[in-house]
Predict the structure of Aldo/keto reductase.
Amino acid sequence: MNLQSTITLNNGVEMPRFGLGVYKVESGNEVEHAVKEALNVGYTHIDTAAFYDNEKGVGRMIKEANKEIFVTTKVWNDDQGYDATLRAFEKSQKNLGVDVIDLYLIHWPVKGKFVDTWKAMEKLYEEGQVRAIGVSNFLERELDELAQHSSTIPAVNQVEYHPWLQQHSLYDYCKHQGIQLEAWSPLTRGRKLDDETLLEIAKKHNKSAAQIILRWNVQKDVITIPKSVTPERIKENANIFDFELDADDMVTLATLDEGLRFGSHPKKFSE
C-alpha cells in the first residue's frame, strides 16, 4: 500500500485511498498552493465542493499538473432538486475545467429533496458525465430511502469519521451494501491530537498523533482526505505508508470511541 493505492468502488472505478481535502481553503493562491504541493508530493486525489467556492483553483492546478487526478465535488443544499442539481453540476464542471468529474456527491441529506437530487445524479452517471456518484453525511435511514426509490447504490458515503466517532452501525451497513466509506475531518479538526493514548501509540511508532489517526483510517479501509494548507503538514499526512499499526494498537484505538462529533449532525438536514 502506498500514497497512490486505490480501492475499487462498487461500479469498478478505482478511487485513491488517500487525498487532500480543501474545505475552508480560500479560493485563489491558498487553494492553488495547497493542491500544487499535494500533487508534487504524490497525491492523486483532491476533494472539493461547490460550497467551498474553490473549484476553479482546484481545476487550474489539475490542468497545470497534466496528469491523472481523481476529483470529487459535491452539490450543495441550496442546489438540490432534479433540475437545480443538473444546473449545479454544469457549473462545477465548468469551474473545474473537466469534461468528466470522477465522483459527484450529495453534500447533505436535505429532507424532501435528496431523492430528486439522486435521480438527477443518476442521469449524469448514465450519460457518462461522472464516473461515480455517491452521498455525504447520510445515515442508514437516508440510505434506505434512496434504495426504495433507486436501483443505483451509492458508490461512496463521505462522513465524519475518526477514532472518537467510529459509527459502527453505519460502517457495517455500508460494508454490507457495498458502499465505500470515506472520512472527512479525520483529524478531529485538531481537537484530539493531544490525547494521551494516541500520543503513546505515536511514540511507539516514532510518528505524529495525526499520522496514527490517518493510518488507523487507512487500515480500516476508509478513504481519507485530511485538509491542510501547510506544505510540511501535507507531506507529513501522506507519510503513513511506511509503518503499520499492530493488532494491539487497533484494539486500543477502538476503545476511544465516544460518538463525538466536531461537525454538524446529519439529522439537522434530514428532519
The two ends are 40 Å apart (CA to CA). The chain has one domain: 15-189+219-239. The first strand starts at residue 6 and ends at 8. Residues 15-189+219-239 form a domain with the TIM Barrel fold (CATH 3.20.20.100).
